[in-house]
Inverse folding.
């Protein structure tokens, strides 16, 4: 069969362009990537062979080999794992399937140096081979496959595929090294790179024939799965490299949890929390990233039952001898042993997080990255609610830093029986909300919540230390029972008959635009504000839904007026003195629109709003 020539997917071509042309300070990582892929391929084969032993028969000793050829200037990395067929080659080595890649690449500019350091965090996988090689050949045969294939490319636009009848099971990757990459033909350099980046790989990485290809074979790594070693035997650097391998990640682990559970069910967990936010954190098609092993045999890296969705940022490995080896991925979902392992893992991760929370700054960084995800657990995991609430941190009206509920409760005022919060788009905007005024005047702290998820868990009737969560922008403010430290002077209020007249005017003029109009006990400085009525959806949530689901009809809200505010007092006096006039009507609308604007909404009718404002300005000027 003659060679078939295919072109790279546009994203791959762009990635390769950056990889090939940039100066890369750490280009030895190509070896880590290729060894990592070889190890994954062996894991996949071992799993497939559980149900189809013929796949591995005759060559069951899985391993990864390196071979040097100084004359030909080639370095070959081979494995006897699952291998690839023609379609796999086209799909895996001509495209990038990873979710988020296209967006990520779109975001890159033209600065090769900068771009490459960003790509380093993202991972270039197989394509990193082109940092050191001018030509790459992949000779491969899929386990059980009839045909072997050779994929070949110079990394510049396309690749060829030809049949390779001699290719044994697995993949053999031949790198024709560039002149400036001759260092990778030296044994000492290979030893060093493998030791640094791939020592944790559970399979032996063997240099065949030593330096000149005719000497003795040399195993370059420890070849024992890292998680089976005791913590004292593993260095930080090794944990980090293992995290890169298992998590397909390129940052440092923020937290490493490595333990062996003993008792009714035994398992080992080696788990990592990343420092950086993974690309797919909020993508609906995201996968779990904890690999499940049974007695060191890889089973799956997509096991939903292993950790709850609110811990989906955790990477790592769980290995247990208490699960049956022939367990299918589908059966896993309902496996009681797995359910117990999950409980244990969650408990352990949350308790380690609690310890880490003592380091306020480091924990604040973690919270900023993953807090919004962890908060999903507040309504997903009933049993862990208290632990999760204890771990939660919030912005609040008390200073600029993050506060815990423990801190909040310790600062509660006499007579305060709820934890107050307000939801909105940004902390800066929330700090200026009129709804906060009455609370601030009494020294009552309010949590400022800006994650969309906050709208959901706060509506679930949660309590912390017997205290309910209450929105300051919903229902009537219950501030009377709270004693202020210093009684601020209450400004003189408009007489009741005048306020009644104004309320009647506002209700009459605004009609169905408002659900109710009432005197506020939450305002001190602003003239008016809108609040959601008891049982109504919060204004912020309703806006979020409108944005995401295209709903356009917003429900009517309660308009609250501040009877101690100069404008309201003057308006109330006029409302009591005159019957409805066009000028009073204008002012009723302006008051309403003003409350909408403060909420981040547009005036109900922007053109009318502008006309009314102009009339009022003119009246003031002439
Ligand atoms: N030695 C191999 N044997 C079998 N399949 C392989 C081998 N090397 C790569 N592949 C296939 O090619 C795919 C792409 O590899 P690549 O290294 O680019 O990305 P990845 O391993 O999926 O993710 P990462 O970017 O984290 O490395 C792999 O997912 C795998 O399916």
């Amino acid at each position: 069969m003659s060679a078939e020539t295919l072109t790279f997917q546009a994203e791959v071509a762009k990635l390769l362009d950056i990889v090939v042309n940039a100066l890369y300070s750490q280009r030895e990582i190509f070896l880590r990537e290729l060894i990592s892929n070889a190890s994954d391929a062996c894991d996949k084969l071992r799993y497939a062979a559980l149900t189809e032993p013929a796949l591995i028969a005759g060559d069951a000793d899985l391993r990864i080999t390196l071979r040097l050829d100084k004359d030909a200037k080639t370095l070959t990395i081979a494995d006897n794992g699952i291998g690839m067929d023609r379609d796999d080659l086209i799909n895996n080595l001509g495209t990038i399937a990873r979710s988020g890649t296209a967006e990520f690449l779109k975001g890159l500019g033209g600065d090769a140096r900068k771009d490459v350091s960003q790509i380093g965090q993202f991972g270039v996988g197989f394509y990193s081979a082109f940092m050191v090689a001018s030509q790459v050949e992949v000779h491969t045969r899929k386990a059980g496959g009839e045909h072997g294939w050779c994929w070949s490319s110079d990394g510049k636009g396309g690749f060829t595929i030809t049949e390779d009848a001699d290719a044994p099971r697995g993949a053999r990757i031949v790198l024709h090294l560039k002149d400036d990459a001759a260092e990778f033909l030296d044994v000492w350099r290979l030893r060093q790179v493998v030791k640094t980046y791939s020592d944790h790989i559970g399979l032996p990485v063997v240099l065949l024939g030593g330096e000149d290809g005719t000497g003795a074979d040399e195993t370059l790594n420890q070849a024992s799965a890292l998680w089976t070693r005791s913590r004292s035997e593993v260095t930080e650097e090794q944990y980090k490299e293992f995290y890169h391998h298992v998590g397909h990640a390129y940052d440092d682990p923020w937290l490493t949890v490595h333990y062996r559970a003993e008792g009714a069910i035994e398992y080992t967990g080696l788990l990592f929390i990343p420092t950086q936010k993974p690309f797919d954190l909020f993508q609906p098609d995201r996968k779990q990233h904890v690999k499940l092993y049974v007695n060191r045999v890889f089973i799956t890296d997509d096991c939903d039952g292993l950790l709850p969705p609110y811990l989906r940022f955790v990477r790592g490995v769980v290995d247990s001898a208490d699960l049956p080896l022939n367990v299918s991925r589908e059966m896993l979902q309902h496996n009681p042993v797995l359910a117990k392992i999950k409980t244990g893992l969650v408990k352990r991760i949350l308790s380690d997080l609690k310890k880490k929370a003592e380091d306020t700054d480091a924990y604040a960084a973690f919270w900023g990255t993953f807090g919004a995800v962890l908060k999903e657990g507040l309504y997903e995991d009933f049993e862990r609610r208290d632990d999760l609430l204890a771990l939660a941190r919030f912005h609040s009206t008390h200073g600029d830093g993050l506060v815990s509920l423990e801190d909040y409760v310790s600062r509660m005022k006499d007579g305060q029986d709820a934890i107050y919060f307000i939801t909105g788009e940004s902390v800066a905007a929330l700090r200026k909300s009129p709804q906060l005024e009455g609370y601030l005047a009494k020294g009552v702290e309010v949590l400022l919540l800006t994650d969309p998820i906050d709208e959901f868990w706060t509506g679930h009737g949660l309590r912390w230390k017997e205290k309910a969560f209450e929105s300051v922008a919903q229902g009537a403010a219950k501030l009377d029972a709270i004693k202020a430290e210093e009684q601020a002077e209450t400004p003189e209020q408009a007489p009741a008959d005048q306020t009644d007249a104004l309320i009647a005017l506002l209700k009459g003029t605004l009609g169905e635009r408002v659900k109710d109009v009432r005197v506020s006990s939450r305002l001190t400085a602003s003239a008016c504000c809108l609040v959601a009525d008891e049982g109504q959806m919060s204004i912020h949530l309703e806006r979020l839904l409108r944005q995401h689901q295209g709903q356009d009809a917003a429900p009517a809200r309660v308009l609250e007026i501040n009877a101690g505010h100069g404008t309201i007092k003057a308006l109330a006096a006029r409302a009591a003195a005159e019957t409805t006039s066009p000028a009073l009507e204008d002012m009723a609308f302006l008051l309403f629109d003003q409350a909408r604007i403060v909420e981040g909404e547009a005036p109900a009718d922007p053109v009318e709003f502008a006309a009314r404002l102009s009339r009022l300005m003119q009246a003031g000027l002439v």
Observations:
- The mean pLDDT is 89.
- The chain has four domains: 4-222, 231-362, 393-471, 496-621.
- The first strand starts at residue 4 and ends at 7.
- Residues 393-471 form a domain with the Rossmann fold fold (CATH 3.40.50.11260).
